[in-house]
Amino acid sequence: MSEKKLRFNSKTIHGGQQPDKAYGAVMPPIYQTSTYAQTTPGGHKGYEYSRSANPTRTALENALASIENGSYGLAFGSGLAAMDAVIKLLSPGDEVISTNDLYGGSYRIFRQIFEKYGIVFHFVGMQDVDVIAEKINKNTKLIWVETPTNPMMNIIDIKAVSKLAKKHEILLAVDNTFATPYLQQPLDLGADIVMHSATKYLGGHSDVVVGALVVKDKELADRLYFIQNASGAICGPMDSFLVLRGIKTLHVRMQRHCENGRAVAQFLSQHPKIEKVYWPGFENHPNHEVAKKQMKDFGGMVSFVTKGNSYENAIAIVEKLVVFTLAESLGGVESLAGHPASMTHASIPKAEREKSGVVDALIRLSVGIEDEADLISDLEQAIG
Ligand SMILES: *Cc1c(COP(=O)(O)O)cnc(C)c1O
């Protein structure tokens, strides 16, 4: 059976993978080497130096391409290193349109690293495609989408944005970290580049920092590979192995993340002390129809606001949680809670963050795969 015909849940295990050529090892060995013996100058077995390529990284890159329905995968030292490579496709004077509810680190690399090289960034509410269209001009070279957004769980219609991008011959990149290919496959919806912080759900065990890009087009892959090798922000063999191992259980983990996410969202929405719950699975979520259309399920990320919008109360809740760990990051097997106003969004002025909904009492949960009843009783005791 051709590997391309495998269904997603089989691709996570077999996609792009073959037993190792040397001894038939079922898992690719961790080729912890920088260089490779040559028989004559240039006489090697496909690998000459590990910045350019390493067999363990190749195994991960092939797996990434397979699960995202792409043709080429590239693994980087972090999600932001992967983004860095995408922006390096651009030249001074080029313009980028992105969402105003963007991962903080993405906003920082755009504004504080690349703006000074003459690249211009616009941040708009991307739930309305017309708002994106208004910002397009002849210099627009890239649209950068993140959906669901963080921490407000807005959903952007990838297919609609892709139509617009194609009409104007603009590259479309989608940060698929929150959804993972289990829930949505942006390349199938018309995106040119999929980006991941594999640190999150793909790795899935909070033990590694890795980034990834996947594309279909050979020429685009060549340009990105050139940057990966020339700038050098690659992913090492040990980290490649860990993410590869994580990917093999992505579908089972995601299924449970979604089930637990749903249970937690429903519990919170019925709680008398909770003002608002942000989860795209609710029928009254403003982008629910788009979420239903482009996602298989609604994921394990849930944000909520307590009544009275008290900063102190929110802090007290996250400190009282026992099964949920108070920590940055997301997407691991363990449940995490975060307080954006004092953690991820602390550097944004209060008035500014509140415009996008990041109020003092907002709490963000990355719902893990523990027993659902334990998660709910933990929230129950912490909210009081
Ligand atoms: C974490 C994250 C990133 C950055 O990835 P790193 O691996 O931390 O560099 C980018 N986008 C989203 C949505 C993230 O959650």
TrEMBL record:
Q: Which UniProt keywords apply?
A: Lyase, Pyridoxal phosphate
Question: An example Gene Ontology cellular component term from the record?
Answer: cytoplasm
Family annotation (InterPro entries): Cys/Met-Metab_PyrdxlP-dep_enz, Cys_met_metab_PP, PyrdxlP-dep_Trfase, PyrdxlP-dep_Trfase_major, PyrdxlP-dep_Trfase_small
- Cofactor(s) demanded: pyridoxal 5'-phosphate
* Residue stretches spanning the membrane: none
Q: Which residues carry this modification: N6-(pyridoxal phosphate)lysine?
A: 200
GO molecular function terms attached to this record? cystathionine gamma-lyase activity; cystathionine gamma-synthase activity; pyridoxal phosphate binding
The biological process GO terms on file are:
cysteine biosynthetic process via cystathionine; transsulfuration
Offer one Pfam family short name for this entry.
Cys_Met_Meta_PP
Q: Which PANTHER family match?
A: CYSTATHIONINE GAMMA-LYASE, TRANS-SULFURATION ENZYME FAMILY MEMBER
* Family classification: Belongs to the trans-sulfuration enzymes family.
Q: Which NCBIfam families does this one have?
A: PRK07811.1
Q: What is this protein called?
A: Cystathionine gamma-lyase
